[in-house]
Structures are given as C-alpha cells and as structure tokens.
Amino acid sequence: MTPFLQAVSTGNFRIMQEFISKGADVKVVDNIGNNCLHLAVRKEEFHTEDESLTVLDKYYKKLQLSKEGKLSSLAVACYLADNGANFYHRNVWNVMPLDLINDTNLKERIKALFPPPLCLLCKSSEATVTFQPCEHTVTCKDCCSENEPKNCPKCQQVIVDKRGFGSLKLKEIHIQKVANKLGSKWRDVGENLGIGSFHLNKIKFEHSNNSTKQSLKMLRKWSATCAPEEFTFTTLREALLKAECLDVLEYQPQTE
C-alpha cells in the first residue's frame, strides 16, 4: 500500500491533502484493486488538526450532510473524486466504491455529482469493464465483447486481464480462504446462497463452536448443489455484500 493510500486508510485528512498537493497519484490501487475511494467510504470519519477546515463544506451541502464537528468519509470521498479518483472503479471482487455505500439516497446524490463514465468506443453505454494492469474503466461489456481490444483504448497499454466483463470460477483454495474470514456470519452468507435451514442447522450441529469448519462445510455444500455457472466470485460477492461481510471482500482471489 502506498503512503497516500495509507493516509486514506488511517483517516488522516491533513496528510492525505499533503500527498495530493505534491502530486500523488490518486488513481493508485492496492494489491486487490481497491482505490482510495474503496478505502475512504468504509471509514466512519476522518480526522485533521485543522479545526477551521472549509474545503469540504461544498460536499456537505451537496450531499445534505450535517458536519457535527466530524469529517464525513463521504465528503472526503467526494473531495478525492474531484481530484481524479473514480467511484466506478472495480476491485478484484468486481466491487465499486459506490457498492459499499448503504444509504441509497446518498448513493444517488453522489452519482448525480459524479456520473458514470461513458464507453470510449460507442460513446453511449456506461463503461463497466476495467482493464489490467492500467486499471482504466473505459468500455462497456458489449463493445469489449465485440471488439476484443488487445490494448487499452485510453492509454494503449497491453491488456493482461479484465474486470467487470466476466466472473472467475471459484476453486477449493478460494473457499478455504473465505471460510477462514467468515466467522459468525457464515449462516447469513449460506442463506444468501440459497442453502436451506435444514442443511445449515445440520452444519451447525456437526461443527459446533468452530465457525471456520462451519463456513467451509457451508461453502462446500453450496459448491455441490449450485449450478456450475453460479459457482463464481460474482455470486459469492453478492452473498457477502448482502450479509455485510465487507472485510471478507478484501480477500484477494488467486486464479492460478
């Protein structure tokens, strides 16, 4: 994680501002593709030594937020977006910063302030495909499928992989790592994946007081009973989001 992302992650607004003023790359991502907005919107608040700070006032007004003596993470996120960060950037889980905002009204206000980018090829559909390693989100799924670009249309860098275009299939190593982080939320995730109460109760009884084994058994049950095309990161991501397991979404899937 870069020093700039570290400042955002720790909620230090003053240090974050200093990095931006010195030309820090606000589009940089961490090892799982999170940009600064993924980190910012998850903070409850930011802190600063400058009590007379007014640079965020316009965002409080536009988002209809009350200051209450604290620095709102969403106001800070809007400040970052005005400095070049992208609310529509997708990490390795295909999650955008906007996906992490639970308040629907605030999410819509942010979308009005920062509309989604349009596809550079068709100029009409929303750009949803993120290219790697350049991390540019510049084409829609249809144009990406039809044109099969070898180079990013924006920077011409060779495309190694894409996010937001398809969904990676899960492997045993993936569900083992997810199981290690689910904890007591395993049952909520299981319900979101469509596993019935009978099977969940059986898993709880057979592996009482061991949430990791319960999680792993639940995920293997899902693997054995779901349609093959549903056993993907996308399906699991939706179940995790619904269960508010945001910390598990920080896990980096390994595709090899």
TrEMBL record:
The family database entries (Pfam families) matched by this protein are listed as: Death, zf-C3HC4_3
**What UniProt keywords are attached to this protein's entry?**
ANK repeat, Metal-binding, Zinc, Zinc-finger
Q: What are this entry's molecular-function GO terms?
A: zinc ion binding
The ranges of the ANK repeats are: 1-31
Q: Which PROSITE patterns match?
A: ANK_REP_REGION, ANK_REPEAT, DEATH_DOMAIN, ZF_RING_2
Chain ranges of the RING-type domain: 119-156
Listed GO biological process terms: protein ubiquitination; signal transduction
Protein name as catalogued: E3 ubiquitin-protein ligase MIB2-like
Extract one GO cellular component term from the record: cytoplasm
Q: Where is the Death domain?
A: 171-250
